[in-house]
Amino acid sequence: MEKRQILIADDDAAIVAALDILCDGKGYATTTANSVEQVNYLVKKQDFDLVLLDMNFQLDTTSGAEGLALIESIRNAQPLCAIVVMTGWSSVELSVEAMQLGANDFIEKPWENERLLSIIANQLKLKDSRSQSEKLAQHNQLLQKSSSDNQDYIAQAPSSSQMLNTALQVAQSELSIVIYGDNGTGKSLLAKKIHHMSSRAEQAFVSVNMGAIPESLFESEMFGHVKGAFTDAKADRAGRFELADKGTLFLDEIANIPLSQQAKLLRVLESKEFERVGGNKTQIADVRVICATNADLTALVEQGKFRRDLLFRLAGIDITVPALKQRQHDILPLAQQCLQKWVNKYQKSQIQFSVLAEQALLAYDWPGNVRELQHCIERAVVLCQGETIEPSDLRLTLDVVSGGADASEHAQNNTTFDSDMTLDDIEKQVIIQRLDKYKGNAIETAKSLGLSRSAFYRRLEKYQL
Predict the structure, then answer these.
(1) In angstroms, what CA-CA distances link 423 with 12, 175, 235, 429?
(2) Same structural domain, 342 and 424
(3) Which of 52, 223, 345, 356 has the smallest number of CB atoms closer than 10 Å to its CB?
(4) CB 47 within 8 A of CB 78
(5) Does residue 138 belong to any structural domain of this protein?
């Protein structure tokens, strides 16, 4: 078990030595400081469980002003750290002020060893409780989001029905899963379905788009960081593995993880151990991993772009989600599901599809798959003037409906924008149409828009594409 980290801050060398011996005898790891500057430096660079803080650092000073200022500084740097203040010039007013600023307890000099050790032990327990409460709050937020995302998975077509049966068979196991499929086929939705059908359903489902993480922030995003670990680390932050502990971690676009980071991912998958960036505590995460990609991972292994041992570790079983054009029986049920979703969101009166609109939906090739269908229905709900959606509301051109080779290009060249659309609305529509043009290829789409990969993925997340 790792030693608890205690910072002893006092300008009296004899007091520091006595506290150091006392704490060391109880198995605590101690760091010492004898000035305000040292304390401020250390709390920004190292993670402490508790600080024993003198209230005065200058000779002939009894006001406690230095200690009060340090309490605020420590609390800003390490919100969960326990602070026990000490002074030889105790007063009720100073005690109250110290507690109001964030101190957890107060002791007079000279102290009784047993009383001080009891205070330290109690404050460390309370600090652990605060840490657990914060983690539980984050966990509950993830559970609420996961629950709200849990919708019925439409699988009436033979190809999708067979796929779903396989997914549900392995849901109760602890096997890691790789979900293959074109962009927009609903891989993330299937991952959530597997989670909700597993023994981990009451725990968190944490999703991360591997293509959207800059290489320089990979470790921070996945494993978390402590305050001061790097320039922008303003506070401690839990990583995705920590948040997904006991639950499911969904790694979308797994093929986009840089080769240089794959070894770090492999290590935590094999050992279940990791450290926050800048931290010195080894943590354990019990997660079930589900990955998704539209790439051929085996081919990437042969090309030297993906580690073979990582693929073996991830691919307990492979599941392929068929394209929407291969799921004809699912198109209308999916459209109805989308229709109800957007009607509720936009608070519209009950709307239904006309027979011709349904025929148009069935005739369309859906190069953007389920994602394109969702946006098509959303647009139709917004544009529909009555209680029936007609083909004109769907805005599926004849070339597109007939599945012509130039359908995507035709749609791209006939882009129209409503006069009341915002810049965000226009950008979202352009991205959707460009994705259609490049048949869901994210890299080609990003290049055509003049965007970096990470900038493009940030926009996909922004517009929930």
Answers:
(1) 63, 44, 34, 10
(2) yes
(3) 345
(4) yes
(5) no
Helix (H) or strand (E) holding 290: strand 288-293
User: In whole angstroms, what is the distance from residue 379 CA to residue 401 CA?
Assistant: 17
| Cut 0.70: pTM above it | no
User: Do residues 444 and 198 lie in contact, with contact meaning Cβ atoms separated by under 8 Å?
Assistant: no
**CA-CA distance, 433 to 375, in Å (whole number)?**
11
Gap between the Cα atoms of 234 and 81, Å rounded: 15
Tokens representing 77 are: 């740097």
Residue 205: how many CA atoms within 13 Å on its side-chain side? Answer: 27
Q: What parts of the chain have a pLDDT lower than 70?
A: 1-2, 58-63, 89-92, 133-151, 397-421
Domain count along the chain: 3
Span 21-61, pLDDT tens digits: 999 999 999 999 988 899 999 988 888 999 999 887 765 45
Closest CA to 208 of 194, 223, 198, 196: 223
Contact 460, 446 (CB under 8 A): no
For residue 310 the two structure tokens come to 């990582």
- Measured CA to CA, the distance from residue 218 to residue 213 in angstroms comes to 6
Phi/psi at 300 (5° precision) = -65, -35
Hey, CA dihedral for 96, 98, 102, 107, is it positive or negative?
Answer: negative
Co-location of 186 and 311 in the same domain? yes
What is the C-alpha separation between 63 and 198, in angstroms, rounded? 60
Answer left, alpha or beta for residue 195, where phi above 0 means left and psi between -120 and 50 means alpha: alpha
- Answer for the pair 167, 194: CB distance below 8 angstroms, yes or no: yes
Q: Please report the sign of the dihedral spanned by the C-alpha atoms of residue 261, residue 267, residue 268, residue 269.
A: positive
What range defines the domain where residue 65 resides? Answer: 5-130
What pLDDT, on a 0 to 100 scale, did the predictor assign at position 440? Answer: 75
Task: Read off the amino acid at residue 311.
Answer: L
Q: What is the DSSP letter of 277?
A: B
Q: Could you tell me if 287 and 338 lie in one domain? A: no
Distance, C-alpha 429 to centroid of its chain: 26
| Model confidence pLDDT, tens digit, residues 210-225 | 988 888 889 999 999 9
- Regarding whether 333 and 355 lie in a shared domain, the answer is yes
